């Protein structure tokens, strides 16, 4: 441990940090969900049987001018009843997303008072991701107003 190191909370209490690295332009944090079991998506039966794990790379909001990359060890569980394999829930990122919800939320809010291009440049992401964030933010605002 370096003498001048500090600890920053990830702020995602459902995840456990397994490893972390600080590189020149990146923070990389390897994480896994704290859960040890999951409910089968089909029948609802609880299972602890892990079928396999795979590493997925997701972007999170930057920290001190560095990109934060979360490497999540995603598990697939096996239902004991039907022997079907299913992926564990992913509330931090969302289904098939390559960024965290909170990062998209941040991008969407930033783009309400700056251009999409400006936000994309500042956060070093594609404009498409910023637009996704804006769409999700508008969806949340409409939902809060009771519009379906
Ligand atoms: Zn099942």
Tags for this model:
two-stranded antiparallel sheet; alpha+beta; 148 residues; 2 domains; 3 helices; 5-stranded mixed β-sheet; binds zinc ion
Structural summary, described in words:
Strands 1, 2, 5, 6 and 7 form a five-stranded mixed sheet that branches. The chain has a two-stranded antiparallel sheet with strand order 3-4. The protein has two domains: 14-95, no CATH class; 99-148. The protein is an alpha+beta fold and 148 residues long. The protein is built from three helices and seven strands. 24% of the residues lie in helices and 34% in strands.
Summarize the structure.
The protein is built from 3 helices and 7 strands.
User: β content, as a range?
Assistant: 25-35%
Note the gap between the termini: 51 Å
What is the number of E strands?
Answer: 7
What are the segments in which pLDDT stays under 50 over at least 5 consecutive residues?
A: none
Helix content range of the residues, please? 10-25%
**Cofactors, ions and other ligands in the entry:** zinc ion
Rg, Cα atoms, Å: 18 Å
Instruction: Name the average pLDDT.
Output: 93
SSE pattern: EEEEEEEHHH
Tally of structural domains: 2
The description of the largest β-sheet is:
5 strands, mixed
Q: What is the structural class?
A: alpha+beta
Query: Count the helices. How many?
Result: 3
Overall geometry: flat
